[in-house]
Amino acid sequence: MTVPDDPQLTSPGALTGLPLLHRGKVRELYGVPEHDDLVLVVASDRISAFDVVLPTPIPDKGAVLTRLSVWWFDQLADLVPNHLVTTDVSAYPAALQPHAPFLEHRSMLCRRLTMVPVECVARGYLTGSGLTDYAATGSVCGVALPPGLVDGSQLPEPIFTPATKAALGEHDENVSAAQVAEQVGAELAAELARLTLAVYDRAAAIAAERGIILADTKLEFGHDRTGALVLGDEVLTPDSSRFWPADSYAPGRSQPSFDKQYVRDWLANSGWDRTPPAPHLPDDVVAATRSRYVEAYERLTGEPFQGRS
Asked: Which residues does the chain have with pLDDT short of 50?
């Protein structure tokens, strides 16, 4: 699968000389010369939908994802340790300093982790792939749910609904907690479920205070060099979570949202058959999507967002 370039990351001399460890749909991981215990996480402005990376970037998206993740890491620090070392570019190792203009606001210097190969998903509301599973089986990831639920229904209690980590361009597959236990062991599987639900409960309560419903979220964990289980990747951003405005919540339909559901809806109505390449987004869709990401940041953190320009 081809990932379109982010012009800010591919300008002449942008990040040349740094070892690229992984390129995902949105983020890129680089090794840090002379610091094999560290990784540089860079959030691009790319956006994906239906497991396809779109050719049109969303301005400031990488900065929103990075700043919001950092804010959430701080809110969750007493629940679970995280991989963040610093986002102060001036404090980055010397090998990264030539790239400072490209790294400001969109990068995190992090501890290197051995990632657990499980997408840890918590759901407090029924939608997306969970709704599809429920419609077919009456359950989600082996968790039986009451009859009569509709798109957007609040669940009796939040549930842990893990998924396998798929290769770029492939679909993650929902699995049961028992399958996770078979893959990583019962003790680790239980801890993943406990931490995922604890993070969801904390984040949902914080979001509710700001008039936002956290419908679901996806987390990733890894082990550091001491063996400790650590929260990694990004956390509780519009890319990994569904955020709905509480004042317009109404079960039985697709909810207005602060995430990329707006892009998904536009693509679904565009006539595109979800086969790459995806169509370019029109300017009004780009602007509206950016505004949703920025509004999510500002409402959750209470801080004004200052773009890169």
From this structure: 1-2, 4, 7-13, 169, 309
